[in-house]
Amino acid sequence: MPPCSSIKCQLICCPLQTVTCSVTSLYLVVESASVFNFLHIFWMQSCIRLPYIKSALEGYEGQFSKLIKDRYLDPLELWTDDEHLNKFIALVETSVDLDQLENGEYMISPSYDTTLSALKEEQESLEHQIHNLHKQTANDLDLALDKALKLDKGSQFGHVFRITKKEEPKIRKKLTTQFIVLETRKDGVRFTNTRLKKLGDQYQRKLEEYKSCQKDLVDRVVRTTATFSEVFGSLAGMLSELDVLLSFADLACSCPTPYTRPDIIPSDEGDIVLEGSRHPCVEAQDWVNFIPNDCKLVRGKSWFQIITGPNMGGKSTFIRQVGVNVLMAQVGSFVPCVKASISVRDCIFARVGAGDCQLRGVSTFMQEMLETASILKGATDKSLIIIDELGRGTSTYDGFGLAWAICEHLVEVIKAPTLFATHFHELTALAHESPDHGPHKKQTVGVANYHVSAHIDSSSRKLTMLYKVEPGACDQSFGIHVAEFANFPASVVALAREKAAELEDFSPAAIIPSNAQEEVGSKRKRESDPDEISKGAARAHRFLKEFSDLPLEKMDLKEALQQVKELKDGLQKDALNCQWLQQFF
């Protein structure tokens, strides 16, 4: 049977109508949980129980009975008739020696071939003669059959007699005159005579002929059974699909927090809206009380989402759960949401986690760049892109520059729905970029800022993660607070706060309570609202781009100075409404 993973891959890549059919199939399975739970637990464990699987499916009489008949019952009826699977079963029952199966041996039945049957009869006749000779020898030597005188069979001597060393003195004279002693060992004396040796040699020859005939017949049977590969392939594919859907249904029915049936929308229309979404793997852990979040990737408004917030605040979990929910919906599963509407994606690109590849000689940052390059080359406007912490493996300026350029490319060129989690808070300025500035007009897909919220106690300075994703930008990562969680020495934490305050030139995030901002940000040089910073940074970026677009090499000095003055005056005028920009004048 094909592995379930391959069936899921086929479901992911299948057209929209097939995805819809899979979700509908799953819905009927969930609807008839008792019937299909019985089917999954017991009958799906063995393909020889296909008639019972068929009976269980026939027991369903709901609104989707026609779908069950067309997709499962009719194919089962076809592939299990007398021309297909039943014919194979008859071949097995005829050709395989079922008596030997109890001993774990798979052999061709003697009755399957006349030559094999004749060889088997000759073998049995020789065995009977050998056993009669054993009885006669026991009487001649006056030894108890099988107790004192045993009949052994080995690869070295074939059939031989064996007595214990204790019995050997009693018949020593006869042994030397009437028999041939083969060996004396701790477990006894082995000997034979002319009659036994002759019968043993004949038996061995017949055994070799029997094995040779068996081998020829096995080859014939295998060639015949190979013609049934299409039957087993079709049955395996159908049962694997049913197995996957039953597993999805079992999960949807047994999960403590309900799953929901997603609405599937064509890829060139609609949005990706997940209300109360959860991560199915994280919420399954016993000690986790998962906090659900909404995700609304809306064309022209929030198609590209920049997610900022504290370390350990839940950014990575959030973007991954969105990817998992979309993936589950497209393979035909119910999703861990209150409500879900999925615009079908042709691919999900994910650049998450960090790690090098020593065997390939690839550093952590290079691995990150390679993964990002594959996204930029392979993604389309019908893909879903998930990026976590891009550009952190190099210098701050290089990392930010790469992150900004990649974001602009995703927004302006690829235009795919994207979740971009980052600690480069300056990237939030993308949401305030004018779509029509500069010589090249931008067709924006809609950039929105979101952050994961947290709370700082004003007295204890304890940071509490709220794990809620809310609109707006955040300008702090709270890395120092996480270091406190890790039990850093107090002196190290204090010095870290001091140096961070010296370097930063903007205030803490809006998610910090107002009564805690003075304490945490008291040493900051300037205080500005995060949205004001984003707008100011976007205006400054526009100024720099307009300046870089000036054809200075074609202007004389006077004209160049005039153009630069106009740009500067425009920026200075806009700075009157932006405290963050005023620091540059």
TrEMBL record:
Signal peptide: none annotated. Transmembrane segments: none annotated. Keywords: ATP-binding, DNA damage, DNA repair, DNA-binding, Nucleotide-binding. Pfam families: MutS_IV, MutS_V. Residues 383-399 form the DNA mismatch repair proteins mutS family domain. Residues 514-535 are annotated as: Disordered. InterPro entries: DNA_mismatch_repair_Msh2, DNA_mismatch_repair_MutS_C, DNA_mismatch_repair_MutS_clamp, DNA_mismatch_repair_MutS_core, DNA_mismatch_repair_MutS_sf, Msh2_ATP-bd, MutS, P-loop_NTPase. Residues 520-534 have a biased composition (Basic and acidic residues). Gene3D superfamilies: 1.10.1420.10, P-loop containing nucleotide triphosphate hydrolases. Belongs to the DNA mismatch repair MutS family. This is DNA mismatch repair protein MSH2. It comes from Juglans regia (English walnut).
